[in-house]
Design goal:
Strand 7, helix 6 and strand 8 form a beta-alpha-beta unit. About 50% of the residues are buried. Strands 1, 2, 3, 4, 5 and 6 form a 6-stranded mixed sheet that branches. Strands 9-8-7-10-11-12 form a 6-stranded parallel sheet, sandwiched between helices. The chain folds into 2 domains: about 110 residues, Leucine Dehydrogenase, chain A, domain 1 (Rossmann fold, 3-Layer(aba) Sandwich), CATH 3.40.50; about 190 residues, 3-Layer(aba) Sandwich (Rossmann fold), CATH 3.40.50. It has 14 helices and 12 strands. With about 350 residues, it is an alpha/beta fold. Bound molecules: nicotinamide-adenine-dinucleotide.
Length: about 350
């Protein structure tokens, strides 16, 4: 089962780690290191079983390779997942995970993701240098990710409504955690109306109080009247069931692996809904951390993040020109860069 999955996802390596003392059960997947060492956050989630955790790590790692590639960064893709409930997140567990990351000696660099915040990353950092997203300059990458999503939404709005002005448009945000909250904040400033949902009531209450967002149930978010649906929670939420409910014209949000299967990207396309490929629009945090590693300031990082608007615009244009769904265009562009680099490396090895 494991090698079959590695083959299916084209993953270079997968490692499992168990720490007796803390009870840590973690998986690190290295998808591709052609462009550079593998970068990818650590997700802590209460998975139903090991297979679910493995598949999540492999899918997310592949997405990271494509994200780095299409963003023009010289890094590869990887991901770590920890199988645990939030209450099992102890200092001992996070430090054990830091030691796991350290065994890769820089071939894998990690940071925040769902269930892992800046404080957690700082604890991992006690055991390894290969942790990003904890510095004073960039710190928590989620505001950069949210800003990139706003830029991507503007490109979609320009295409659908003829203007990138978001004032008067309604955005439905699924999940108002780190990225979703910052996204709501920016969209509110831009004059957009907000509809939100989250499993955590205190988070929706905050967004409602601060930005006047209307709060709906977890199920209602798919069928609300809105212009843009912004998934900012977990993946696979664009599927047969939810596509039938969507009333929006644009799907553009931060969540990784939004399409349950590729064919769902095609279904969105056929329904006339613009889809901003997830790993293109949510690359802001990765771009900011990469820029920081090249000694750029947070401001320069933000400028680079803003290139996402042009990237999404270009993908939509090619999609319309070739009559192909946007996710296919993005995959082609991302995979092509990795393939070309690999060819170059093989040729120089032979020479
Ligand atoms: P987070 O854990 O801070 O927020 C996620 C929120 O979604 C939580 O508040 C959670 O309660 C909520 N949620 C979970 N399941 C839900 C459901 N079924 N319906 C509604 N709400 C639900 O995580 P985050 O850092 O904000 O990341 C959000 C998404 O964006 C993830 O898919 C992550 O992989 C992706 N992403 C994050 C970053 C980043 O910079 N943090 C970068 C790229 C991609």
């Amino acid at each position: 089962m494991i090698f079959e999955n590695l083959e299916d996802y084209g993953c270079e390596e997968v490692a499992f780690f168990y720490d007796k003392g803390s009870g840590l059960k973690a998986i690190i997947a290295i998808h591709d290191t052609t462009l550079g060492p593998a970068w990818g956050g650590t997700r802590l989630w209460s998975y139903h079983n090991e297979e679910e955790a493995l598949i999540d790590a492999l899918r997310l790692a592949k997405g990271m390779s494509r994200k780095a590639s299409i963003s023009g960064l010289d890094v590869g893709g990887g991901k770590a997942v920890i199988m645990a409930k939030p209450e099992q997140k102890t200092e001992a567990l996070l430090r054990a995970h830091g030691r796991f990351v350290e065994t890769f000696k820089g071939r894998f660099l990690t940071g925040e993701d769902v269930g892992i915040g800046v404080e957690d990353a700082m604890i991992m950092h006690k055991e390894t240098d290969y942790v990003a997203g904890i510095s004073k300059e960039v710190g928590d990458p989620s505001p950069f990710t949210a800003h990139g999503v706003v830029c991507g939404i503007k490109a979609c709005a320009k295409d659908v409504y003829g203007s990138s002005n978001l004032s008067g448009l309604t955005v439905a945000i699924q999940g108002v955690g780190h990225v979703g909250y910052n996204l709501a904040k920016e969209l509110h400033k831009e004059g957009a109306g907000l509809i939100v949902t989250d499993m955590r009531e205190e988070l929706t209450r905050r967004v409602s109080q601060e930005f006047g967002a209307k709060v709906v149930t977890l199920e209602e978010i798919y069928s609300v009247d809105c212009d843009i649906f912004a998934p900012c929670a977990l993946g696979a939420i664009i599927n047969d069931e939810t596509i039938a409910k969507l009333k929006c014209k644009i799907v553009a949000g931060a969540a990784n692996n939004q399409l349950k299967e590729n064919r769902h990207g095609k279904m969105l396309y056929e329904k006339g809904i613009r889809y901003a490929p997830d790993y293109v629009i949510n690359a802001g945090g990765l771009i900011a951390i990469y820029m920081e590693s090249k000694h750029s300031t947070a401001e320069e990082g933000m400028k680079k993040v803003e290139e996402i608007e042009e990237k999404i615009w270009r993908i939509i244009s090619v999609s319309k020109e070739h009559n192909e769904p946007t996710y296919e265009i993005a995959n082609r562009l991302a995979d092509e860069r990795i393939r070309n680099k690999r060819r170059e490396q093989e040729t120089s090895k032979k020479a």
